[in-house]
Protein 1
Amino acid sequence: MITLQGKSASGGIAFGKISFLKRSSASVEKRSITDLAAELQRFEEARNTACEQLDDLSERLADKIGAENAALFEMHRMMLQDPDYIEPITEIIKKEKVCAEYAVNTGGSRLAQDFAEMDDEYMKARSTDVYDISRRIINILAGVEDGPAEGGDPGIFAADDFTPSETAQMDRSKVLAMISKQGSYNSHSSIFARNMGIPAVIGFGEFLSADLSGKEAALDATEGVLYIEPETAVIEKLKKKQDAILLEKQEWEQFRGKPTVSKNGKKIKLYANIGSVKDAEAAVEGDAEGVGLFRSEGLYLESNDYPDEETQFETYKQVLKCMGDRPVIIRTLDIGADKQAAYFKLPKEENPAMGLRAIRICLTRPELFKTQLRAIYRASAFGNAAIMFPMINSVNDLKRAKQIATIVRTELAAKQIPFKADLPIGIMIETPASAVIADLLAKESDFFSIGTNDLTQYTLAVDRQNDSISEFCDAHHEAILRLIGMATEAAHKAGIWCGICGSLGADETLIKTFLDIGLDELSVEAPAILKLRKIISEN
Ligand code: PEP
Ligand code: MG
């Protein structure tokens, strides 16, 4: 028996033969051309056909992977229409006088590489999307049919990496699990695997060699372990685990639609963190009682210029409508540090995590802030919204931000634009300073939400982006727990609620501690909701 360790991308257990994915993919040669106009026309036509294929896929796969996920193909379509994608390719055709296949392969690979080198995990994962659209055009140019070829028998499918459209088109009855050399937890391929319930493990590296093809294997995708030619004892152990996982999921389902109440009767608000309208749909699906953190900066990060008031208004409105009467806490712009958008033209800083970011940008660029606040207030007429300011460090920061909100309300009222004037305004506690002066901030806030990701980074002086010091990044550190306790106590003394919206909120091992501290809310990723509701009920 050989044991290989990878990284879990979608939990579950699978048993079967390893089968390397046969791709119906065209090979790419560098071919010189003489008729430039004709080659550019070939590229143009292939691009149009690719767009038609994507429309078709989006419609066909909506049932299988969910309408919100099928929207990925609309995103691919937009990428295919983006000058940042098209222009480098047409330049290669023109300058090097080469065939479109070669130009798409070269231009697409460069752009994919640029994405792969980005710091942000989400942007990094977009690299596979660029690869996917390029492969689609190359196949069209070469007349090769699109789609994965899973072959005859059900098996554990292996590849260097799976593209999102390959995963979305997988035949669930044939694909027992997916394993790959590369991959990222945040890639759409991994997201689809989780949505479709396909166990998946990524990152085996070169150990996942082609000579494993045809070998019997057992996969513990929850732990990321692949057993090749497994011993009977391992098979038995994993079968038991498989039964237990199934049982556990059925148990979580019993908590759907129920309130979240601890053993001694404390009611907890169990909310979801979202970054888009699609995530709001997932929050409803996951049975979230509200949205505890809407990371509004997604709107800014996915566009090439400042999103205007209308665009923002529409997005907030859609999220609010989707959540019905459930609360939706919209966090105002938290750009800067690891979340960069080039058009902000932020100064190059030695230490961006401690630089011009989040509320500091909004306070120094009030027009930008006002546009967002206007959009939020206008959208507030369509649901149960609240506003939350990130990175508040002092009472002065908070007062200045609230003053700008007051100006926005006055202007909207003067123009007789409908909005809710009494939206709760809360703050994130994500610096040690804010936790230490929580008593002062509580007098000016309607609620607190603790951003443990940043609170940990700033308290322990560990850069949250730096993998090489992850062993020193202990979010269970007594200092963090004490700061959470201080903020909660100060909130309660002032008669307001306090929750956590950082990743620590979903830490099952701390639920008892959180309840002892007296936290009122936890905002987590939607799929964790039912499980946490069950754990809270037992503590
Ligand atoms: C946090 O810092 O914990 C938080 C929720 O905000 P973000 O992760 O978006 O910085
Ligand atoms: Mg933060």
Protein 2
Amino acid sequence: MADYDFDVLVIGSGPGGYVAAIRAAQLGLKTACAESRETLGGTCLNVGCIPSKALLHASELFEEATSGKLAKLGIKTPTVELDLEAMHAQRIDAVKGLTGGIEFLFKKNKVEWLKGHATFTGKDSVKVGDREVRAKNIVIATGSSVTPLPGVEIDQKVVVDSTGALELPKVPEHLVVIGGGVIGLELGSVWRRVGAKVTVVEFLDQLLPGMDGEVRKEAGKLFKKQGMTLKLSTKVTGVQVNGDKATLTVEPSAGGAAETIEADAVLVSIGRRPNTSGLGLEAAGLSTNQRGQIEIDHDFRTSVPGIWAIGDVVPGPMLAHKAEDEGIAVAENIAGLTGIVNHDVIPSVVYTWPEISGVGLTEEQARERTEVKIGKFPMVGNSRAKTNHEPDGWVKVIADAKSDRVLGVWMIASVAGTMIAQAAQAMEFGATSEDIAYTCHAHPTHSEAFKEAAMAVQGKPIHI
Ligand code: FAD
Ligand code: NAD
């Protein structure tokens, strides 16, 4: 230790980095975390998970009042008005509270925050601002940034990325979303609920790539029903900005006649790419793969001893909870313990209404690997969902035909994001569909739909 300033230096304070730093400190290691942003918490807390959920929650309540949903429950709201400034203020407040919370946790755990951009100067040395430090272990947790669309300039006024879309000062009349993935659908939902006409232009023939095929089809139907215009199998070939308006040129993905769409806001949400530029990877003897990611082994070690990497900058889904779990595991591995993340059981959630979630294999992936049994149960048959006027969606359980072990679970339901935790835990414990079917579930809860879907694998649900 004598030669080193720290046992562990974490670069980046997102969900991967801050969790790694806190766990390393908890394990008795002298730890620092470099962060170039003004506040801790990374993409997720500053411009990602948290601010988007603040707007999703507020806009959902607004729509409940304006759509007549509350009136159906006997709650009259004759004068509902949007105060966008106040909606933004509560978003900013949520971010401030949580990023400040990480600063408090750093102090409590004696993690030193090195403020500034970090650049490797050697295999165990990093320059942060004017200060050069040496660390026995360095964890790269630099996260990801928006993938640009060639030829389309993001001005954060008319053409915005997800950060700009969180901060629009007024409701656009027509928002065109380029990319029908998670960000496009979540932020598109926010602005549709508060009054924008929303068109989603998606290159592929379905929304939400990577999710179960049936989920993707159903999602398309639901978002259309909610009033979004979906232009699938369509690519944007250009965006021309004139003052406060934009004209998009689009054509079929497979080629064909071009058409134009007028918009007063354009959201570019075609994916995210790892942050490695300006990190000085070459000085550390590291390089990236073709996708710009840093390759790691099972224990999060890079090819250079003493340098580790986690989160969005390494291969795998770009999700905050995956980054967090990797943060705990990498710190435990550095401390000589056994840190493991089961990458086969990482849930994913789209926080729209209804919510969409999944864990494990899609039906397509499962069928490719083995013979499967499928159980499905509609939310319209669930007493709680029905009583709450939330009939949309279903739960699908995919089990191995021979062993009955659950291989994947997919859900579309108002609270699917909360319900999926139970599926992930069941799969982590190696549950069969019969285990779930014979587990007593409280009544009346949405979770009973999961039990019934598991019963449907056995061919005997009760309420349908
Ligand atoms: P990040 O959170 O990106 O943090 C990396 C940090 O490193 C940044 O603060 C950056 O400033 C810093 N940094 C980078 N390079 C350097 C350097 N050289 N020196 C110093 N500091 C550096 N995921 C979910 O699971 N659920 C959600 O609901 C969700 N919603 C999202 C909504 C939006 C709009 C967006 C954009 C993303 C969302 N995500 C969500 C994805 C989630 O934010 C990421 O998966 C997660 O933040 C990745 O964590 P990370 O620690 O790897 O990196
Ligand atoms: P994404 O990969 O989810 O979706 C991008 C979409 O854009 C895809 O459907 C793709 O086919 C489409 N696309 C790509 N190029 C296109 C083009 N030229 N024209 C039209 N469509 C095009 O990416 P995202 O929505 O930007 O989200 C980025 C990451 O952030 C995701 O990996 C996601 O995991 C994460 N995220 C997660 C959550 C959550 O967990 N709720 C929320 C937001 C973001």
Protein 3
Amino acid sequence: MVLARGTKLVVATHNPGKVVEINDLIRPFGLDAVSAGALGLPVPDETEATFAGNARLKAVAAASTAGLPALSDDSGIEVECLGGAPGVYSADWAGQTRDFALAMKKVADEVTRLQGWTVPGPRANFVSVLCLAVPGRPVQYFEGRVYGHLVWPPRGSKGFGYDAMFQPDGHTLTYGEMEPHAKHATSHRAIAFAKFVDACLRQS
Ligand code: IMP
């Protein structure tokens, strides 16, 4: 499915951090991006146990309500020694108020309880699964992962979510310390987005 320049595309997320990042990634391709929040679309319950399942839920809900192509992202952080937790439940670890200082502390406490905190910190990776839903077409998925390790205490106030406790391999800064363009050059979302571009935008 190729999306021509000028196509209206719903960015099917209510997460302000993701809206900014996805809009930055989409901008060069001339799509007319509008967020689910700006269209007043409801926030669907994320009831699936996989990133792909939740991404599909969000994209299909937005596409069918708006009658437009919709691109969603379901993502999270997986900590190796926690068996991949918090994973699909990354947002839930931040509680109702979406307090990510609290979520990061929960991750650090859980690691410390299990095995103590050594430097460098435990291996972890971010995952992003993008889902494109176009009314009347099969959905398409695009996945990206980035590997690194956790730091404690968190460093940097750029970015969002767990950015300040994640240092990608080959870098000395956390995502919380990097400028947005530096994060976009390496991130899980950018890797997934590049696959979406190859499949759906490059030819237009
Ligand atoms: P969901 O995809 O809406 O379920 O939310 C996933 C959660 O994972 C977000 O609320 C963030 O806390 C976290 N997350 C996903 N991507 C990133 C990222 O690029 N940086 C930091 N945290 C992220």
Protein 4
Amino acid sequence: MTRLSGITPSGPVHVGNYLGAIRRWAREGDPADLYFVSDLHAMTTPYHPQKLRGRTRELLAILIAAGIEPDTVFVQSDLLPQLGPLTWVLECACAFGEAARMTQFKEKSADRSHEGTPVRVGLFTYPVLMAADILLQGADEVPVGDDQAQHVELARVLARRFNGTYGEAFVVPRAVTPPAAARVRDLADATRKMDKSASDSAGVLFALDEPDLLRRKVKRAVTDSLARLEYRPDEQPGLANLLEILGACLDKSPREVVAGFSSYGEVKDAVAEAVIEELRPIRERTLELLADPTELDRIRAVGGARATGRGSHRLTTVLRLAGVA
Ligand code: AMP
Ligand code: TRP
């Protein structure tokens, strides 16, 4: 069984990405799995090439530092020679209306922050590239957040359609979504999920933030004036978010961790220390890897070669069945 998932370097990694995705991949990962940095996705909206290159390396280093088996990690663009042709084949299997229905496209193309800049065709076709990521590797399971489940569904549809029309080439994948409680929210506004591309990062705990900065951000977290130490997500969303983060760091439920505190200040101190301790080894290892570009390049090349090797046979079959090789 192969699991595959990707994470986009659209901004620095935050504690939500770590607790909700990366730590899970590191803990549950199997040597047959694949985890990658989807740098091509970051090109679908305006971006800076140098920043993208840097963030891609940083994210690759974080995945490895978090303990994901280095052989199973790769960078999406290292597979461009295979993903390019496969995306084209799948675009020719995808109806315009199917792509137009994607909620993320509708939301992002309407995003006011990009007003004035044209919506890129790549933003529209990206879900087909994502299908190529998944289908090239013959992934069985794709762990993603709810927002990506629709894209995995499209990959299923395209795999079935190709198999039915031209011949069996693809494994039909399925999405696996983590429990809803894994949604970490912004510390400054608990109605928003913690987001790496948020314009204001005061409430976003980045994986590479210095301990002092993490402490300050947690101290400033918005709570309420009820002075009730209970886990009540609807009535006290800010406090509930802190308890969820603390619980995730300690592998306990938010209800378990709330017992024993007598003030919000104490909760914040405990959250800050738990997050700092959780992130410390990852931050240190990431900085070491980034300081040794030769080693990082070597690891990147090994992962890229493994993923390329896995995909090449399937791509050959697909092109032959499609009548173009
Ligand atoms: P994104 O930052 O949207 O590229 O998400 C990358 C991965 O991190 C996905 O698997 C998401 O489910 C996970 N993720 C993103 N934001 C959060 C959050 N606030 N809480 C928990 N998981 C998150
Ligand atoms: N689009 C995904 C995101 O933004 C990242 C991604 C790209 C992905 N390709 C993938 C996830 C393939 C799972 C499988 O989060």
